Amino acid sequence: MMVCAPVVHLQKGFTLLELIVTLAVAAIVLTMGVPSFQALIRNSRLVTLTNEFIGAMHLTRSEAIKRNHRVTLCRSADGRECTDSGGYEQGWIVFDDHLDLDTVVETGETVIRVFQGASTGMTLRGNTPVQKYVSYDALGFSRLAGGGFQAGSLTVCHAPDARYIILNSVGRVRTASSRPPNTSPPSCPP
Hints:
The protein is an alpha+beta fold. The chain has a domain at 17-68 and 121-176. Helix content is 27%, strand content 22%. It has one helix at residues 16-67, and strands spanning 71-75, 92-96, 111-115, 123-126, 133-136, 152-158, 161-167, 173-176. The longest helix is centred in the N-terminal third of the chain and has 52 residues, at 16-67. The radius of gyration is 27 Å and the shape is elongated. The N and C termini lie far apart (86 Å). The model has no long low-confidence stretch (mean pLDDT 86).
């Protein structure tokens, strides 16, 4: 006589209770993780824009030294000429400002590089000395259109976070994550 072993049916899948518990745990993890992930993305965009602008300032300075005359960085909405309105978040250009040193692109002055604007929700504004432009002379010093030294600070905002770009009187740049003392950079919009 032959004895057969009982057939064992393996259960495949989840019970309804296991599925509900898994979904509840996933919802709790997502609820806690999404805000911190959004803050990470916001901070990453803030640092990227800050570094891109500082890179443009370094380019402006090095081109002024290389060309042995004034080179200027200004805010620009169209990539061809400087604008008097808005902030740097709309874009900026670096151009050879050797003809009349007026910080405005003239016929015969070459646009060296065009930089695109910031992503939506970000601002990049400077206080009065650097509100419209940053200009370097042949020695690498930052200069106002009239020839005086140029120093100031710019605020890069992605509300509620901000970073600061500080230009000292000899043209060197540094960053700060808190508002520099004794300065009045623009505040971040709400």
